[in-house]
Design brief:
single chain, about 65% helix, mainly alpha, 6 helices, elongated
Amino acid sequence: MAKLIKRSDIDSLLSFEGVKAEIEKIETIDIAKAFQDRAEILRIYAKKVGKGLEVQNRCAEIKIRAEKKAGELLKVIPREKSREYQKLHDVTFEPKPSLSELGITNIQSHRWLLINS
């Protein structure tokens, strides 16, 4: 069931002085994605209730910063070696999470990496 958004959610998100610092502290892609999703929901909500462009733009900025952070995190995640490589090398390895296991589409991953480059 969808969570109801309160007007105070927008105000608390936007009035929070350390929101940029909070994004920088994010350590997992799940949290970055949740942050990005919430900022987008709040942006859409702000538009529907008639908040000004400044509020909508702040929400969009927060979303972009969260996407950039997700791109940074994607860069440092070790990639799965190809199956051919695994056949040729006798290496014990732990399978790395795929994008779908992380709840990320290929398009999202691509965009986040572009924002970060």
